[in-house]
């Protein structure tokens, strides 16, 4: 059986970047604050991650405003709901990724998409019973979204990757999950929020960050996010490697954010 993720993991620069990220996560997990306050750190990391995910979508709000529940923008609220939903979806991710993505879209796109479209991928034109075709926005300047047929086929391939054994690190799988969902835009709304939530879920469920401590979304916000996805879209080894390395850097930067949370809690 072929292992396409293992081949990606062997691209130049990937192994070194993944090792650096894994070492950063290992150091974070040794922080003494986590012995007593791991759930609180995870909650704060999720809040910061949701804020960052919304900011990537163009809605950047102060963290303190979120704490005071003063922000009612649907993009921000969708990112918060998606983040909160992850803890309930973990055990289903490997077995029923389609179900998980539908749920993530339902909570992320509420208030942005029409109710009948929530949780439903874009319709194939000759299958009207799947829903009506809808326009797909391009907030990141990635170019036209793939046709619904292509998006559906690539989603099936992605689901296969999630269930198949691989020698590749979890970070490589998470990066591919994130990129595919972001560039396919399978739902046509809130796809970026769904993609970043799915990346975090993959890092948790496939073992790199089992306690969901790393604010990886913050790491993406701190980098040229769209540029990395455009590199991935080229399909070249160099472009794919660039994106995987960018995701590894996002994990490392996310660890830095979470370490700051730990330090603040330690100071009281």
Automatic annotation (TrEMBL):
Compositional bias ranges of the Basic and acidic residues kind: 117-132
Domain Fido residues, every copy: 96-246
Lineage: superkingdom: Bacteria
Region: Disordered, residue numbers: 115-134
PROSITE patterns the record matches: FIDO (PS51459)
InterPro entries on file: Fido, Fido-like_dom_sf
Protein name: Oxidoreductase
